[in-house]
Amino acid sequence: MLITIGLSSFAQEKGKFRVGMDFGYGFLQRGSGGAGLAIEPKYNLKNNLSVGLRLEEASTTLVLDGPNATPEGTLSNSSSFVGTVEHYFNKGNSVFAPYVGAGLGVYILDYYVSPSAKEVYAGCKMGGLIRTGCEIGKFRIGVEYNIIPKSTYTGILSQIGSVTNNYLGVHIGFFLGGGQWNSKATAK
Question: Which listed site, 7, 38, 111, 156, has its alpha carbon 20 to 30 Å from 18?
Answer without folding.
Answer: 7
